Automatic annotation (TrEMBL):
The keyword Hydrolase applies. It is found in: Nucleus. Its cofactor is a divalent metal cation. GO terms for cellular component: nucleus. Keywords: Hydrolase, Metal-binding, Nuclease, Nucleus. This is DDE Tnp4 domain-containing protein. GO terms for molecular function: hydrolase activity; metal ion binding; nuclease activity. Pfam families: DDE_Tnp_4. Residues 273-429 form the DDE Tnp4 domain. It comes from Lactuca sativa (Garden lettuce). Belongs to the HARBI1 family. Residues 1-37, 76-97 are annotated as: Disordered. The keyword Protein biosynthesis does not apply.
């Protein structure tokens, strides 16, 4: 029997005894027989009433216990009527006195609360035919995103904000819909695909802190961080196989013809360059990421990771190697790349990739002369090599100009960085293929200190081929004479 019903039963018995006393002890011998019969009737009625009330109380307690037992079987041991409610702890939770009673009820059913950190919070109800559950969320303005998401915003204004036109943005959203779309839940509506992609592209294009991105799009800081990583991962998985790939045989012939028209050097299939992306000092293996050359030049401690890229004559990346520590010179980064392994397997037999003085001369890597006291022929060759190498430098300048996050020390974890950098390269390719213009003032000058490798000449065959090309360029009027000025 429920403990709360015991005092009530005791009070009822006390009342009954009082009535008995009043009925039996009130006369002094002069009462009539009818009066005694009336008192006895009242006593019997009072005891009968108490007994019926006790049966009713007992029945209610049994019904309640049965209801709780059935509820535990169906929903688990969610709450306990004999103990106080145990609320979940939250990093942003306020004292219990400030939490609305509706939100406290939601905790009982195992739903985490997104408590507002200011007075601008509201409790929203979700759910259809099932039980209504209330979630305490913070009101955030989405006016900025609503403006750019509408058809009223101009093409130039949209391009200035996202570094691409509306059509290109729409194409990317359509390509990624299957990978990034989420379904609505009983707690909240999912962030739309367009807004998800916009958060990622805006973050990459501006390099703004997550706090500012959160204010612009009306989303939580952690939500924005999660969206950036999810969309970048989708770009790597879905778009990279389509828009960043090594050229096939037909494309290779077109590329070699264009590079030969540019420089006079035959059989060039790509221009290669390695740049550095600044990072915050990592917690482990710090020395490996310390960039001594940038530190000496800027007089400021610098840490970085490398991005090695090969581009075609349009500046579109055909191969990238991302994420090696900034202390590694260009030749070591090349040796660690998948391109190096494929070339040693015969992929680049009979063709050249042009690199700077930081790379070694090999059977498939063509670099300028680096020894002192060069001849006119060697000067002329270096000038033409510089024309080819300028293609990759300009491509990296546009890459860093479009995606400003590459110019700043990123807040992301080191293990997430390769995916984000790869997404930037893919988005760069899409913009280049679709002829998306970049503002000249956004072009970022690429300055990376190239170090001549310890073993700069690694192929006798390549040395002879380079000398022959230099001779042909000079004597067939393909070489320039600007080195004389």
């Amino acid at each position: 029997m429920n403990d709360k019903s015991v005092p009530q039963q005791q009070r009822r018995r006390k009342v009954a005894k009082t009535e008995v006393a009043n009925g039996s002890g009130g006369g002094d011998g002069g009462d009539t027989e009818g009066t005694e019969t009336n008192g006895l009737t009242k006593i019997i009625t009072s005891f009968f009433f108490v007994e019926e009330q006790e049966k009713s109380d007992k029945s209610q307690v049994e019904d309640k216990m049965m209801f709780e037992a059935n509820h535990k079987k169906e929903h688990g041991d969610v709450f306990d009527t004999s103990n106080p409610i145990k609320k979940r702890k939250s990093r942003t939770a306020k004292p219990a006195a400030s939490i609305p009673s509706d939100a406290a009820a939601a905790v009982d059913f195992g739903y985490d609360l997104n408590l507002a950190t200011s007075s601008g919070g509201v409790a929203t109800e979700k759910g259809g035919d099932g039980p209504q559950r209330r979630l305490w969320v913070k009101n955030r303005s989405q006016d900025w995103w609503d403006k750019y998401n509408s058809s009223d915003v101009s093409e130039d204004e949209f391009r200035k904000a996202f570094q691409m036109g509306k059509d290109t943005f729409e194409m990317i959203c359509n390509e990624l819909t299957a990978s990034v779309a989420k379904e609505n839940t009983m707690l909240r509506d999912a962030v739309p695909v367009r807004q998800r992609v916009a958060v990622c592209i805006w973050r990459l294009a501006t390099g703004e802190s997550l706090r500012l991105v959160s204010k612009r799009f009306g989303l939580g800081i952690s939500t924005c961080h999660k969206l950036v990583l999810e969309v970048c991962s989708a770009i790597k998985d879905v778009l990279m196989p389509k828009y960043l790939q090594w050229p096939n045989d037909d494309s290779m012939r077109v590329i070699t013809n264009e590079f030969e028209s540019l420089s006079g050097i035959p059989n060039v299939v790509g221009s290669m360059y390695t740049t550095h992306i600044p990072i915050i000092a990592p917690k482990v293996n710090v020395a490996a990421y310390f960039n001594k050359r940038h530190t000496d030049r800027k007089q400021k401690t610098c840490y970085s990771v490398t991005v090695q890229g090969v581009v075609d004559p349009r500046g579109v990346f055909t191969d990238v190697c991302i994420g090696w520590p900034g202390s590694m010179p260009d030749d070591q980064v090349l040796e660690k790349s998948a391109l190096y392994q494929r070339a040693n397997g015969g992929l680049l037999k009979g063709v050249w990739i042009v690199g700077g003085s930081g790379y070694p001369l090999m059977d498939w890597v063509l670099v300028p002369y680096t020894q002192p006291h060069l001849t006119w022929t060697q000067h002329a060759f270096n000038e033409k090599i510089g024309d080819v190498q300028k293609v990759s430098k300009d491509a990296f300048a546009r890459l860093k100009g479009r995606w400003t996050c590459l110019q700043k020390r990123t807040e992301m974890k080191l293990q997430d960085l390769p995916v984000v950098l790869g997404a930037c390269c893919v988005l760069h390719n899409i913009c280049e293929m679709r002829r998306e213009e970049i503002e000249p003032e956004l072009m970022n000058e690429v300055v990376d200190d190239e170090m001549v490798p310890d073993i700069a000449l690694r192929s006798a065959v390549a040395m002879k081929a380079r000398d022959s090309m230099a001779h042909n360029l000079l004597h067939h009027n393909h070489a320039g004479t600007s080195f004389l000025s």
